[in-house]
UniProtKB/TrEMBL annotation:
This is DUF547 domain-containing protein. Residues 1-36 are annotated as: Disordered. PANTHER family: ELECTRON CARRIER/ PROTEIN DISULFIDE OXIDOREDUCTASE (PTHR46361), ELECTRON CARRIER_ PROTEIN DISULFIDE OXIDOREDUCTASE (PTHR46361:SF3). It comes from Arcticibacterium luteifluviistationis. Residues 11-25 have a biased composition (Basic and acidic residues).
Length: 252
C-alpha cells in the first residue's frame, strides 16, 4: 500500500529472492494476538498509546517472527498468515518509532518517490538475517506468491483510515479462510470506505490500484457482490472511487 501510483516496472524492483529452508519452526502469534485484542477495537482503530506501553511485547513478537521465517514444509495458509501478521506488526512498530505522526506518509522525506524513498521503502525489517521493507513483503512476496488468492488485500493495514481495518486478532492458518472473508465483508460494508447503494456505487481505490490482482480471480463487480450486503449489476465494470484518507488509523 505504498502509493496511489503503482507502476508495474517499479513494483518488480521490490521482488524478493529469498530461499526457504526445508523445515522451520512456526512463530507463536499469541503475543501479537493479545496486543491486538488489548489495543485495537472492533472498528480497527488502534490505541497507539497502549501499544507504546506494551512495545517490549511487540518487539519480542517481532524478534520471534524474524527468527522463524516460512519454510518449505509450511502450508500456503501458514505462509500467508505469517506475512500478513509480519506486515501489520512491523507497520505498527514503524508508527511507534515515529511517535506523534498524524499520517504514515509523514514519515521520511517531504518529497517522496514511490518505491524509492517512501515509508514503505525503509529497510527496517530483518527476517532470517535479510533486510526487508514493507513493499518487499506486499509486492515482492504476497502479490507474487499468492496470486490465486488476493484476499490478503483486505487484511494488509498501512495504518491509514481508508485501509482495511486492523483485525483485533492475529491471522492463523487454521482460521485464515474465515478471517479473510470476514475482513472482505467488513471492508465492503464500511460506508466510509465503500459506498454501495441502489443510488450509486463508489468503491475504494484499492480496487483500482490492485485491479489486476482481484480480476485474476473474478471481476470487481463479483467481489463487491460476494461481500457487500447491497448487490450491484454483475456486469458493471466502470466504477467511481472514494477519496483515500491517509490520516492515522488511531491515536497516541
Amino acid at each position: 500500500m505504498s502509493s496511489e501510483e503503482t507502476p508495474a516496472a517499479t513494483e518488480e524492483s521490490k521482488n524478493v529472492d529469498r530461499k526457504e529452508k526445508d523445515k522451520g519452526k512456526q512463530a507463536n502469534a499469541s503475543t501479537w494476538d493479545k496486543l491486538l485484542k488489548d489495543h485495537v477495537n472492533d472498528k480497527g482503530e488502534v490505541d497507539y498509546g497502549g501499544m507504546m506501553n506494551d512495545k517490549a511485547e511487540l518487539e519480542a513478537y517481532l524478534a520471534e517472527i524474524s527468527e522463524n521465517a516460512p519454510a518449505k514444509n509450511w502450508s500456503d495458509d501458514e505462509k500467508m498468515a505469517y506475512w500478513i501478521n509480519a506486515y501489520n506488526a512491523f507497520t505498527v512498530k514503524l508508527i511507534l518509532d515515529n511517535k506523534g505522526v498524524s499520517s504514515i506518509k509523514d514519515i521520511g522525506p517531504k518529497t517522496q518517490i514511490p518505491f524509492v524513498n517512501t515509508p514503505w521503502d525503509i529497510k527496517f525489517i530483518e527476517i532470517d538475517g535479510d533486510k526487508y521493507d514493507l513493499n518487499n513483503i506486499e509486492h515482492g512476496i504476497l502479490r507474487k506468491d499468492f496470486k490465486k488468492d488476493p484476499r490478503y488485500h483486505f487484511a494488509l493495514v498501512c495504518a491509514a483510515e481508508s485501509c482495511p481495518r486492523l483485525r483485533n486478532e492475529a491471522y492463523t492458518a487454521k482460521k485464515l479462510d474465515k478471517q479473510l472473508d470476514e475482513e472482505g465483508e467488513a471492508f465492503l460494508n464500511n460506508k466510509a470506505k465503500n459506498k454501495i447503494s441502489e443510488d450509486g456505487v463508489a468503491i475504494s481505490p484499492l480496487f483500482k490500484w490492485y485491479k489486476k490482482d482481484f480480476e485474476r480471480k473474478m471481476p470487481i463487480a463479483e467481489w463487491v457482490n460476494k461481500y457487500s450486503d447491497v448487490k450491484i449489476d454483475k456486469k458493471q465494470d466502470d466504477f467511481s472511487y472514494m477519496d483515500y484518507s491517509w490520516k492515522l488509523n488511531g491515536a497516541f
